[in-house]
Amino acid sequence: MRKSRLRARPLRKIGAKRVVRRSPVLVVLLCASVLFAACAGTVPKGADPSETVAPQGGYVEEGLASWYGKDLQGRKTASGDIFDLNGLSAAHRLLPFGTRLLVTNLGTQQSVTVVVNDRGPFGEDRMLELSYAAARALGFLVQGAAQVKIESLQPIADGGEFTVQAANYAEEKSARALKDRLSKKFGNISILPFETNRGTFYRVRVGAYPSLEKAEIVAGRLALEGVEPLVLRKD
Questions:
Q1: pTM of the model
Q2: Least packed by Cβ within 10 Å: which of 60, 65, 156, 213?
Q3: Are residues 119 and 139 in the same domain?
Q4: Which one, of 76, 66, 64, 167, lies nearest residue 118 by Cα?
């Protein structure tokens, strides 16, 4: 069976530190850390430690994770699910919705299983955004962010469409000004309003591309226009 191309290629683009290959010793350590967390009560109800000790998908990534909660509580995620801050969920820019991930806090070795049901985070320095409950299970609520490793618990399929987010504004006029400027060099630019409990934000996105490689080329061109582009899976 052909391995997923998402295993390593996108990691350089979205700020991951490196790809880590599992060893038997690491698997043993993960098993021990998950069982310890379950006994200590750090894994919230709904997480099944028995499912977090044997990653199967081959997708491994390290980077900075943050968390979100009240601002989006009760709102629709990008997948259409209603966000529940007490659920075990995550936002990732490229992984398909429904992907189950083992997330490990590299500082404490606490682990939890989450499901990708949203897009983000929208900061170049961050790789993953977790629900309040997932961040609590990993022990970094107070710090706000932590270095983590994610491992897929299922194969990651190739294919799909990708888009590039050029900016995210709190004011619609700023989004329209950027759209007008970029329209001179790029086609298919849209502004997507996004409702939160703190107000509406306006995301400027460019194109729909049949491959990650083509989206990355456009992202490189956008970077020359003074924006900080982020490649996203288009769902």
A1: 0.71
A2: 213
A3: yes
A4: 76
